[in-house]
């Protein structure tokens, strides 16, 4: 480094030493060339910062300086700007900024620098200091040493002011200026000649301030002028004492000096000091006389004692004196200075005095103080902030825990965590983190370490006492300017209370929520605008609705809710009250009805209070509704009963008396007194009073009852006439009631009396009327009864009793008796009708028989009507029964006769009609009505007579004209009418009828009525018709069976497979003849041919099976009937073909089992064959049919007189025919049918010509089955 | 008949007949598709080639003759009827309505093949005629309204002069139109044009003699 310095040309050894001193003073010094390139940096600074000169001098492309990395990013811009400015202008550089240390931590440092100028004032270098806040103590030491060195080597006159460069003539002046600046703090400007590199001196103007000075070359301006000669204090050291001389030598270096004699008495102090401080040496020394040291007046009182002690010690021992203290400037401000002194020895080595210097280190001192203060603050901050802080290496190893964290864990040092074979991080997590959280934390940490991402998580840490506490841990990396992670900072904040509070809060919230749901009231919440936002669970259950479920478009939520759940009568009131509260913010309270889920409205007492925020505006409304329905209803009931009671008391005119149990009158109500008057003085008890006031006629009864009442203690009632004030007797009703005490003993009797005079009179009048009525009722020749609404007999008049021969029966019994009196035949109807009347309230009118006292039944007409009260409720039933026996008997006889006649007409199995002389029907018998399906009354109208209606609608259109004509004829002439025609039945079917009509004439012979009889002959006519149709059908069927159609169907069935066989055969042929032959396809085709040919064979089998009837279709029948049917079928054809049939069937042939249709077919076929055979015969065409029993078989022979059969052996072969159009199947089928019946069919020759076909049917069929 | 430029449709409810006919036709190198009912046939997608329909009279869903009547309106291939038991009225009716033949099962190979060939030839003819007509219609639609006025006059045999007078235009103009008509209709000669007009059923409205109507 010395070399580096020396390379800056032309700096003498003094200057170099000066720089070295600076380095020594402040610890870290640096030097650059004029361009700012570092030429020297104290080694300690390099190691502190962890950098090299090369790095400092490197510069990036962006123009950043090499030391950018070392400056905190926040401070960098300011620092570099300032530095560049200073390089350009030569201004002093002075900055405080944070510097990154090799340890990775930033620390505050003050960096200052000043230029070095050559003789021409050109800056040729910079040097400066870096005062680090963290190392003040070492700097202090070094500073002290520097001063000591300066004092030791008096000759080594190097100083910041470079006084050595000053022209010796001007040096004193320059030194004086420096001293003046020191002592006064006022900048001093001096002009002096300064040594240039070329050895010449040039005039400079120097501005001195307490710490540094600035020189400007002004030589060109002042060369023609004489320098200002310094007046006194020429350094003529010979004349002075050794201490002063030494002081002056030192002073010439530092600009300041002082000297003491051996006793510590001031002997020299720079004159400026004396001037500026306003003291003289004598004054300073005066304090020695007072027992103090000579420093007394100069120093700050706080510093004095310590300095004085040191000074005394030095004076005594001759040790070097080196102290720091505050001294008082003339301006009154204390500034820090460092003072040093050494003893001056004479030639014999004795101390002859002390010389020393003082240096201003106020700025430095204050900086150090400030740094220390800040460091303390920071350290306190780190230790005191309620945050647990730790620092980790980039690998995650903890290297620093702040005090809080250490306290928390109960550790003294991080190193205590170390465990053998384990990283410190793992050990820390294992021992300090809750086992449940450890794995997660470790994982997160590893993740962060790997990726460099900051992270945070909540986990539990174990406190010194073993308790785990929740913390919120966060960590993030500290990166250097290249982005590499230098360190991790991690903090954790104890959030245990918070977590626990949260938990508690959650519990509390749950509790509250339960509470809200459990309170037996309904809680709700409205928004500030009144929209419902919450219903408690109970409320939701009550309403069966939750928030929002009632919403309707276009209606506010509140209005919709009110409409949905509030009683319509209360809705308006509620809405108004709510609106008022919402508008004014006043509490809300109202009773109204709410609709429960089941639709029942219940009274609720509702209250709502607003919740306000800090500004006082309403945030929400909390409401509570309490079910007060039962209360409200109970209240209502109570109120009404109270009202009733009051009314009663007000309205009822009661006269009240009370008696002691002894009978003594104890109280008479006012009303009583008004009414009856005060009893005379001698009357004091009940007996006397009663005797006095009761009507003599009523007294005994009344008195007896009262006595009885008093005796038994039972309440009693008396009706009697009482004399009133005016002397008139009036009826009253007096009621007496005892009042008993807890033991049941009577304490008092209360008697209340009511005037019942009017009532009694009314009763009297009523009784009178009743008597009259009774007489009336008894006198009437009818039976008058009355019934209670529930059907109990309540009254029976006297005549009834007499007529019916009953008396003395109670009415209970009488009800039964009355029922017994009804004729058994009528009883059920009477009972049911009367029961029905009782139920419905309808009047009862009925004719029935009632038993008289002589035991005979007589017809009566019973009428019973209800008496209703004003409400329509039935009060009584009144029954009047009138004897109508004679009338009834006459009527019954008449009706009986009529009925028998009517029944005669109705039941005759003919249809009968009676018509007026003009033919209009006036009566139709049931048979006719049923036949026609309509009643006579429905005819007519529509401008049409009934007769016309009957004829038009009823008679078959084909027959209508004839019927009309002949009926008209009969009506006109009176001749009887008879005709057959079709008549329309109710179901729309026309039936044949035979209608006959005859006139009925009166005595004068005039026609009064036509009687018409109409006979249904439809069955007859139809039977006839059906016989004919059956013949036709059978004929057709037999023809079908005669094989043309049969063969066609066979042909079709067989043709289908055959057609396929043929087509396949052709195809097969083609495949085989193809070149080359397609054998495969031919094979396939042949397979199909086989299949289809088999299918054709199947068809034939099926046809055969068709004629092989099983016994199932057979039924036991007489063969005669089958033959008769066959004959009927063929009869017509026989006539047409002029063939006579000669049939001879033996009577009493046994019945045989046969298939009727098949045997018929056989017969018809054989008959028809016979007929065919005789077609060409000219003569007698007779077909004989003979059936007779031969052995156990019936033999049937059909013989013709045809030409006979040419090939009798072949005729039964299928498809053998002699006919032109025949299929040749007929006889083959016939034989197969006969054989299936177990018989035989054969042919015989007929003599003289013709053929006979014979077949047999066994009588015993078992063998054939 | 070795190339598949044709198609035979078989409609018969009897699977044996369908198989046998299919086999037979194939042995003759013909293509066939068989259907079990009239409904299947009607609904099926059918190739657009000359074709023949072999139709059984007795079908489960509809009588073959009724089917013939139903599809008579539309464009359908000629029909060869086959029947299990033919009766004269049915066959008369079928032939009257344009059936190619009416064969009774079982039928002879030669008869059937002859009928089928006739039917396909007919269908081919019909198709080509229809294609030609379609082409002619296209050409006719390409005429301008004036040319369409000119065409009937020309084919009626009117002289140019007469036709021009009829339309109230000059003879020269008419000649231009006439030439255009000939070109557009691609008529080789007037006779050709007349034949085309006939095919297009353009009425002959004028007679040269009267020179107008």
Protein traits:
heterodimer, A: 1265 residues, alpha+beta, Beta-Lactamase, 9 domains, 5-stranded antiparallel β-sheet, 38 helices, 27% strand, B: alpha/beta, Rossmann fold, Arc Repressor Mutant, subunit A, 5-stranded parallel β-sheet, 53% helix
Would you give an account of this structure?
The complex is a heterodimer of chains A (1265) and B (213). By secondary structure, chain A is α+β, with helices and mostly antiparallel strands. Chain A folds into nine domains: 1-134, Beta-Lactamase; 140-357, Beta-Lactamase; 385-500, Beta-Lactamase (2-Layer Sandwich); 524-632, PAS domain (Beta-Lactamase); 650-761, Beta-Lactamase (2-Layer Sandwich); 780-891, Beta-Lactamase (2-Layer Sandwich), CATH 3.30.450; 908-1013, PAS domain (Beta-Lactamase, 2-Layer Sandwich), CATH 3.30.450; 1017-1106, no CATH class; and more. Helix content of chain A is 42%, strand content 27%. In chain A, β36 (977-984) and β37 (990-1001) form a beta hairpin. In chain A, α2 runs antiparallel to α6 (136-152), α36 (1119-1136) packs parallel to α37 (1156-1173) and α37 (1156-1173) runs antiparallel to α38. The longest helix of chain A has 30 residues, at 1044-1073. Chain A is elongated and about 210 Å long. The two termini of chain A are 150 Å apart. Chain B has two domains: 7-129, Response regulator (Rossmann fold, 3-Layer(aba) Sandwich), CATH 3.40.50; 142-199, Winged helix-like DNA-binding domain superfamily/Winged helix DNA-binding domain (Arc Repressor Mutant, subunit A, Orthogonal Bundle). Helix content of chain B is 53%, strand content 11%. Chain B has helices spanning 15-27, 38-43, 64-71, 88-96, 109-141, 145-155, 160-167, 171-185, 190-199, and strands at residues 7-11, 32-35, 51-56, 79-83, 101-104. In chain B, strands 2-1-3-4-5 form a five-stranded parallel sheet, with helices on both faces. Chain B is built from nine helices and five strands. At the A-B interface, α34 and α35 of A face α1 of B.
